[in-house]
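[job 4471] stage=fold_predict status=RUNNING
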Amino acid sequence: MRYSEGVEIEDLRLLRDLRRALDAVAGQGHEAQVAALREVLARHGVTLDDVARAIRRVKERHTAELTGLARRIARLAEQRAEEVETAEAVDAFVRRLSRRG
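[job 4471] inference complete, writing structure tokens
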């Protein structure tokens, strides 16, 4: 993915590095957190706008993946319901036949 200064970075690596840096200074106050954030941004050669875009892309990707997974599960549930319905119909038919003869 291309960013503001033509730098290519991996969204997940950037976000992971940001989280680690902020976790490392979590109890050290605002200035330490800002310094940690700036260090990661400088190391990756990105801006806060780039981070916002990376977060948005990751959210969109995860949403798309979860939506696809939900659709697949729904199809499987429908197929299973049809299989159960068919099995129940066959069972009822066989029982009726066995009662007759």
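[job 4471] summary: Helices lie at 11-24, 30-44, 48-100.
[job 4471] exit 0
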